């Protein structure tokens, strides 16, 4: 019985955690009408989750673009196809690396801060005080953070894609002897595949849609971890760690599922 309990207990805890997060997401959706009244708080999230981590996103995106360009360029040069480096770098950044890198950075830098902030409010009974004052905790705390991250993640992804492609171009020219004009033309042509649904090219809007979903997921998981925090300072630390861990895991899983959905045919 103890063996079965050790197997069932984590499964039950995981199911309850997912259920709470889904319920929290629905509560936020029902309160989106209050977003305009919380615009000052949303602007605060733009500062915390955008400006403060912008340099990190740009630096990591630039480095990843250089690495992708160098690694693929070396292999393509062996078969005489190094002129396709721009295509590979732009598609890699727009489809996968840009959204994933941005989401990972936001989960580590912003998601952890959200979980710690709300978790501290929970263990210090500030959330209970807000409820006593008839303040809607979800509308006041969760809605601005979710809306902020849902807007920030795609915005930062665009910047990450741009600097990644630019970094790849520098490596292509300096290390592989590819002209800047040839590189940029191939990169732009690769991202101009027509879409059946939107004005944007498919690779661009798929990457932005991924980022939008990632932003929502990070906000929901981080805020849920903060709201369920208990046990003092130790509980805040556990909630912060769980928020980052679960956010990255869900980002990886959802990234695969969305890639399969959009590119399976």
Account of the 3D structure:
- By secondary structure, this protein is an all-alpha fold.
- About 85% of the residues lie in helices and about 0% in strands.
- The protein is built from eight helices and no strands.
- Helix 3 runs antiparallel to helix 5, helix 3 runs parallel beside helix 7 and helix 5 crosses helix 7.
- The longest helix is centred in the N-terminal third of the chain and has 40 residues.
Largest sheet: none
What is the overall pLDDT average? 87
| SSE string | HHHHHHHH
Low-confidence stretches: none
State which percent range the strand residues make up: under 5%
Shape: elongated
**N- to C-terminal distance:** 47 Å
Number of helices: 8
Helix content: over 70%
* Class by alpha and beta content: mainly alpha
Q: How many distinct beta strands?
A: 0
How would the blueprint of this fold be written?
Elements (H helix, E strand, L loop, with lengths): L1 H29 L8 H40 L6 H39 L2 H7 L4 H38 L5 H11 L11 H26 L4 H32 L2
Observed structural traits:
8 helices; elongated; 265 residues; mainly alpha
Summarize the structure.
This protein is mostly helical. The protein has helices spanning 2-30, 39-78, 85-123, 126-132, 137-174, 180-190, 202-227, 232-263.
């Amino acid at each position: 019985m103890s063996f079965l309990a050790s197997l069932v207990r984590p499964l039950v805890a995981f199911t309850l955690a997912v259920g709470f997060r889904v319920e929290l997401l629905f509560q936020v959706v029902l309160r989106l009408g209050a977003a305009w009244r919380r615009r000052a708080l949303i602007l605060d999230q733009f500062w915390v989750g955008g400006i403060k981590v912008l340099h990190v996103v740009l630096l990591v995106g630039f480095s990843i673009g250089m690495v992708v360009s160098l690694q693929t360029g070396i292999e393509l040069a062996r078969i005489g196809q190094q002129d396709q480096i721009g295509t590979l770098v732009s598609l890699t950044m727009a489809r996968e690396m840009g959204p994933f890198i941005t989401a990972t950075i936001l989960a580590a830098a912003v998601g952890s801060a959200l979980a710690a902030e709300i978790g501290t409010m929970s263990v210090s009974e500030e959330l209970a005080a807000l409820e006593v004052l008839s303040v809607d905790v979800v509308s006041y705390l969760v809605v601005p953070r979710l809306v902020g991250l849902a807007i920030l993640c795609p915005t930062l992804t665009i910047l990450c894609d741009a600097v990644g492609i630019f970094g790849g171009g520098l490596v292509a020219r300096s290390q592989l002897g590819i002209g800047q004009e040839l590189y940029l033309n191939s990169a732009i042509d690769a991202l101009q595949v027509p879409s059946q649904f939107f004005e944007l090219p498919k690779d661009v809007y798929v990457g932005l849609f991924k980022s939008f979903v990632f932003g929502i997921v990070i906000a929901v998981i981080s805020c849920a971890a903060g709201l369920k925090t208990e046990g003092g300072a130790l509980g805040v630390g556990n909630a912060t760690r769980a928020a980052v861990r679960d956010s990255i895991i869900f980002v990886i899983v959802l990234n695969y599922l969305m890639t399969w959905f959009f590119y399976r045919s």
